[in-house]
């Protein structure tokens, strides 16, 4: 399955141009080569990367139409950061991760594709939430990082009032458990986008859980990670 075919069956063709497709195809090829040196992903076939990394990341785009600055917490090798930056050049993307070797891949792609709208930020979310970053992003996202109550505390302090936190999950099973955390942190669940991610071998359930920031987060959050894990809000 080609990239174009993958985007078509997932209803994402409107985001793809010839130039953007070339960049995303390069991203896929380079990821496979880079992965031989430093482990970034378990996927080794371009068609799998097209669907399970790139198209899955692109599913976030409809929620970012008004966003100027996006923070990707626990970005790993750059998903959804890199596809979002390539597909929407108007969004300034910050990729945050505590594993610098994974951020190295993003830096190399940034340089090779001349992506001026993406930057990396090494470190842990609970430690970097200080003046200058706190409540400074229109949108924050996280994909396959931690449980939803934990993610709320790590991510919502970075969202400016009126902005959104979009948690990329497989389903809504953690939604109720996160309600108290969202309330304490100044947000409310406003939208849930469930869809089937389609690929050559079948399809998989996906969901984006959206919280809108309605008031400032108390400065005591986020707590130390050991506290967040031991006693989620």
Question: Which short descriptors sum up this protein?
Answer:
233 residues; alpha/beta; Rossmann fold; seven-stranded mixed beta sheet; 9 helices; 25% strand; globular
Short description:
The protein has helices at 3-9, 18-35, 46-58, 81-87, 100-113, 125-128, 148-155, 179-184, 225-230, and strands at residues 69-73, 92-97, 118-122, 137-143, 159-169, 187-199, 202-213. It is α/β, with parallel strands linked by helices.
What's the alpha carbon Rg, rounded to whole Å? 17 Å
CATH fold name? Rossmann fold
Instruction: Give the overall shape.
Output: globular
Helical fraction equals: 25-40%
Q: How would you sum up this structure, described in words?
A:
The protein is an alpha/beta fold and 233 residues long. It has a single domain (3-230), classed as Vaccinia Virus protein VP39 (Rossmann fold), CATH 3.40.50. Helix content is 36%, strand content 25%. It has 9 helices and 7 strands. The chain has a 7-stranded mixed β-sheet with strand order 3-2-1-4-5-7-6, sandwiched between helices. Strand 2, helix 5 and strand 3 form a beta-alpha-beta unit. The chain starts with a helix and ends with a helix. The model has no long low-confidence stretch (mean pLDDT 95).
SSE topology:
Blueprint: H1 3-9, H2 18-35, H3 46-58, E1 69-73, H4 81-87, E2 92-97, H5 100-113, E3 118-122, H6 125-128, E4 137-143, H7 148-155, E5 159-169, H8 179-184, E6 187-199, E7 202-213, H9 225-230
Parallel strand pairs: 1-2, 1-4, 2-3, 4-5
Antiparallel strand pairs: 5-7, 6-7
Helix pairs in contact: 2-3, 3-4
